[in-house]
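# step 3/5: fold
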Amino acid sequence: MAHEDDPSLEDASSFAGVADGFERLWTPHRMAYVQADRATREGADGCPFCAAPGKDDAEGLVVHRGRTCYAVLNLFPYNPGHLLICPYRHVALYLDLTAEETAEFTALTRDALRALGAASAPGGFNIGMNQGDVAGAGVSAHLHQHVVPRWGGDMNFLPVVAQTKALPALLEDTRRQLVAAWPDGT
């Protein structure tokens, strides 16, 4: 019997395959990240921010290596060029950084803004960090700051309706552009 014939079914949108007025754009490749065991992702052995510097730059998506911190592309970017500034050391909180790490963390954030400006001329930026699970940190055990380039009209119906972001550039292409635009002498 079809759900339309059963008046006891008030919320037909809860049934698989039932039209609910929205078109769906499915992104099943993200399930590996969504379902990953948080402890595995966040333990020092399984931490993506501890692993990235151990890979070559292209494989690890590393844009710049400093002495105590580095810049890496976000594997799940909000926009093309979405960078993360990370200390090499596995620390959870901004207050856990040493004075040297804090200075380089800030300098790399500034350099990221310059490189993104030179590579892609965004109209603005979102800069921020979420500390702790309750604050929305995806990987709360390793401090990282987001630097997200923004353009007028970069938010369209996809993120709002389908919780999906369409990105016009491949990560490896974006990384090459940012490496070429990174300020010298840092």
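# step 4/5: annotate
The CA atoms of residues 117 and 149 lie 8 Å apart.
# step 5/5: archive (pending)
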